[in-house]
Every structure is written in C-alpha cells, then in structure tokens.
Amino acid sequence: MILKGKTAVVFGAGGHLGQHIADRFEAEGASVFRASNGPVDGSTPKSAQVDATDEVAVDAYLDQVAEEQGSIDVVVNMAGVAPASYNHGKPAAEVTHEQFMMPLAVDTASQFITAKSAYRHMSEKGSGVIILNTSTLAKVGSPWSPALTASHAATEGLMRSLAHEYGPAGVRVLGVRSEAMPDSPTIEYTFATMGANMGMGFDEMKGFIEQNKTALKKLPEASDTAAVFAYAASDMASFLAGTMINNSAGHIVD
C-alpha cells in the first residue's frame, strides 16, 4: 500500500496503460480520479470526461478534485492520439505535416497543460508528484516513427525543464520511459505496421525486438509498467526528480 492516503489523478485513464496505472494506484491505496478524452464508464464514481488539451477544462477538473479531496498528490497523463491517425509505422515520406504535428499537439502539449494545472495545487502545499510518459522512441531513433519520436523527445525535454522549475516548491517532476508493451492495442498496431516494412508478422516483429533490441530478451506488459509508475509516485522515490525511469528491458542502456 505504498500510495495509501494519496489522491491521484490519471488523465487518459480510458486507454490500455492508463487503466492499468489507475488500477495499480488504487491497489496501492490511492484515491484515484480517472479522466479520459472519450466517454467514461458512468458506473465508476471517480471518473469524468475531460479533454486534456483544454486548459480551462483541466483547470476546472483539478479544482474540483482538490476541493473534494483537500489536495492532489499525484498527476499522471496518458492522453494521446491513435497511431493510425498520424501514419505511425509508415515511412516518413508518407507522413504529412499535419500528421507529424498531431502527437506534439496532443501528447506533448497535454502533458504541459496537466502539469501546469497540477502545479497550482501542489505548490500551495509544498509537495506533489507529476509523472510524464514516453517510450524508447525518444532515444533510439527508430525508423517509421517520426511524429511520435519527436513528440516523446520533446516530452522528455519538457520534463527536465519543469523538474528544475517546480522542484524548489517541493513538486517532483519525473517520467517513465517504457519499452513496447505487446498486450496494448497501440503496440499491436505498431508491430503489425512496422513489421510490414520488414516482411514480418506481429509475432515475428515481437521476437525480433525481444532478441535483438533488449538486454533481458523480453518485453514488459502494461501491468509491469504500471508498477513502475506506482513506485515513481510513492515516497520511496522521494529523491527522484528530473529523470526518466528507464523501464526498457535494457533496450536503452544509460
């Protein structure tokens, strides 16, 4: 119960990894509020439909949570656009300028919006954790992924900037950089699309990444990555700030 007594907000909680993170936070004792750009299951009391790229909507939602709970301890943002919409996995020549900008305008920009809004509340009480999310694309320079590579690299730069700006107020800003999670719909699509460029099916692509790219010769599932987010949000990680936790199975060797 490493998050017992904490209030956490997970944006993008309707997605595969977002759901796993919210569930793990709850399992660790946190009171979790789930926000999603799309429809939310009405049977879940602490959930709401919130566009994470809408500053006014995000401010209003976090104000509501803070008023109800008294404070906000953790904010995570997993919001993003579907990879097919920006031709992820296709050659760069097939990606338009509009498509290239999509992850930057949604994934990265929403990270800035939710972090900025969370800081208003966390700085008042002198503590809090803001966790950003990226992938190995930010470091490895993978082909057929120009838009998301640029977005994730930008998000890591944003994390470093905010960590130094928000740290003096007692607010930890850090990130989790994960390897591909084959159980997620996004990676199912990515491996199928990228694999087509190499004449491989999903299983062949998965095996290729595991055996040729990772030190551990295996890939994490969403539940594995969610556990790292829980650790990052906990007091056990109280001196982790301005860093990306490298949950890449050794694909990235720092």
From TrEMBL:
InterPro entries listed in its UniProt record: NAD(P)-bd_dom_sf, SDR_fam
Keyword DNA-binding: no
Any Pfam family hit: adh_short_C2
Keywords: Oxidoreductase
SUPFAM superfamilies: NAD(P)-binding Rossmann-fold domains
Family (UniProt): Belongs to the short-chain dehydrogenases/reductases (SDR) family.
Alphabetized PANTHER family for the sequence: 5-KETO-D-GLUCONATE 5-REDUCTASE (PTHR43669), ALCOHOL DEHYDROGENASE, PUTATIVE (AFU_ORTHOLOGUE AFUA_3G03445)-RELATED (PTHR43669:SF3)
Protein name as catalogued: SDR family NAD(P)-dependent oxidoreductase
Species of provenance: Roseibium porphyridii
